[in-house]
Specification:
The complex is a heterodimer of chains A (81) and B (384). In chain A, 26% of the residues lie in helices and 28% in strands. Chain A is an alpha+beta fold and 81 residues long. In chain A, strand 1, helix 1 and strand 2 form a beta-alpha-beta unit. With 384 residues, chain B is of the alpha/beta class. In chain B, the strands form 2 sheets. A 7-stranded mixed beta sheet of chain B has the order 1-7-6-5-4-2-3, sandwiched between helices. A 3-stranded antiparallel beta sheet of chain B has the order 8-9-10. The chains are: A alpha+beta (81), B alpha/beta (384).
Chain lengths: 81, 384
């Protein structure tokens, strides 16, 4: 990963269609402590917009995305509180 | 409203197409009887057809602030956009192959720009409300920019763009500006300072199959189509005279009622914009709150499947559209919502037709919260 932190938790949402990846993220964010980082692994193109938008609406920090070898992207989110 | 067929109750998708205006229906049959002949011939019936066509052109020209010899009718709004972009690019190909477009143009503009031979297309970003910054747009214009394209108002979220300011900055740099005014003509003030303009009759209550291409006289434009003497050399093919007549009749009628309709639509959109966040948890109303077209309002609901939403609303008799990926044939989300950085799922666009009443909107506001709650309950996302 380029300049992005290692996640504390990876939520595998590959082959899930929107809005499922954001729902999974919302379900699992509480599994890391405040300051912890969750990676959402998704191949649905809507995740690129919807994960950052969810962070904005929920007050979490969107850190960026990385492509993975599997063709999916890893979207990194830092839990704020 | 009296005399509105039941099929139009709950029709909230006027940005896709406005039902035929009664004024257009009234003249259509008559126009087929009087305007069937070849308008480029020299006998009586042909001269009648030519007169009808010229008259239609004058009405449209007056509505968009142009001269009537600058106006041509096309086979659709999409064809008008294609000819606007490709013809302007062709006439300026010595300047370069660089095009500047806003990121939230209609797909017909984006596809036309990409199809210019050896094109390099710069997409100008928008802010979260869908607004282009005129200076950012101007900074994207280069010495080798052949064409710039900016819509009058956005078809998905309603945001109105600073066309006059962008036109001025483009003119200073000698770059022609193509304006897609499909959502504005007949509804909102049409900006004045464009070089080439495209519009679509069925958006204002004219018949389908009639678009409008307007090329300012001083603007260089070269037909991208094989040579054809019809349509002032701009639009190939036999003119649809009855369609043009009905389109002009609808536009004239629409402009006569525009002030009253716009006031009504703006008030109903304000009502939706303020009530939806009160009635529905976790919802984001998108698009600019004040710099907007009168008839469009869009919102996105967290954790909701857009397709399920459309299906449920249809069961309640509401016709709306959505920019969510699950509702598109390509399974990609709307490029407009993406460019704005707003939620793309659970998206609903409501757009008001001239038949929409306050009662329709009130019923919509009663039904929508229940529908969204039910879809969320089925998915099990309560409390997330």
């Amino acid at each position: 990963m380029t300049g992005l932190p290692e996640p504390d938790l990876t939520v595998d949402c590959r082959s899930m269609r929107c809005p499922q990846p954001v729902i999974e993220l919302a379900r699992r964010i509480a599994d890391v402590p405040a300051g912890g980082v969750v990676a959402v692994l998704a191949d649905d193109p809507a995740a690129a917009t919807d994960v950052p938008a969810w962070c904005r609406l929920r007050g979490h920090e969107y850190l960026g995305a990385d492509d993975t070898e599997s063709g999916a992207s890893a979207y990194l989110v830092r839990r704020s509180r | 409203m009296r005399g509105v067929p039941n099929s139009l109750r709950g029709y909230l998708d006027a940005a896709s197409t406005e039902p035929l205006h009664p004024a257009a229906r009234e003249v259509l049959a008559e126009a087929y009887d009087a305007g069937w002949a070849d308008p480029s011939r020299l006998y009586g019936s042909a001269r009648r057809a030519r007169l009808l066509l010229d008259n239609a052109r004058e009405i449209v020209a007056a509505a968009v602030g142009a001269r009537s010899d600058e106006v041509s009718f096309t086979g659709s709004g999409t064809q008008a956009v294609h000819l606007a972009v490709l013809g302007t690019a062709a006439a300026h190909d010595r300047t370069g192959r660089h095009l500047v477009v806003s990121a939230i143009e209609h797909s017909s503009v984006l596809h036309a720009a990409e199809s210019v031979p050896s094109a390099e297309v710069a997409r100008v970003p928008v802010d979260r409300s869908g607004l282009v910054n005129a200076h950012v747009f101007a900074e994207a214009v280069r010495a080798d920019t052949a064409v710039a394209c900016l819509q009058a108002g956005n078809h998905e979220v309603g945001t109105v763009q600073p066309v006059s300011e962008v036109a001025r900055l483009c003119a200073e740099r000698g770059v022609p500006l193509v304006v897609d005014a499909a959502q504005a003509v007949g509804r909102a003030a049409v900006p004045a300072d464009w070089s080439v303009l495209a519009a679509s009759a069925h958006k204002w209550g004219g018949p389908a199959g009639v678009g409008v291409l307007v090329v300012r006289r001083r603007v260089r434009w070269r037909s991208p189509s094989p040579e054809d003497e019809r349509g002032s050399g701009r639009v190939p093919g036999f003119e649809n005279v009855p369609g043009a007549v009905a389109a002009a009749a609808a536009l004239r009628a629409r402009l006569a009622e525009a002030d009253e309709l716009n006031r009504r639509h703006s008030a109903l959109v304000d009502l939706i914009r303020s009530r939806i966040p009160e009635l529905v948890p976790d919802v984001e109303v998108v698009g600019h709150p004040t710099l907007r077209l009168p008839h469009i309002v869009t919102f996105s609901c967290l954790y909701v499947d857009g397709e399920a939403l459309l299906t449920e609303l249809d069961k309640h008799g509401f016709a709306v559209s959505s920019g969510s990926s699950c509702t598109s044939s390509t399974l990609t989300p709307s490029h407009v919502l993406e460019a704005m950085g707003v939620l793309t799922h659970g998206n609903i666009r409501v757009s008001l037709s001239r038949s929409t009443t306050e009662a329709d909107v009130e019923r919509f506001l009663t039904v929508v919260p229940d529908v969204i709650a039910r879809v969320r309950a089925i998915t099990g996302v309560d409390g997330l």
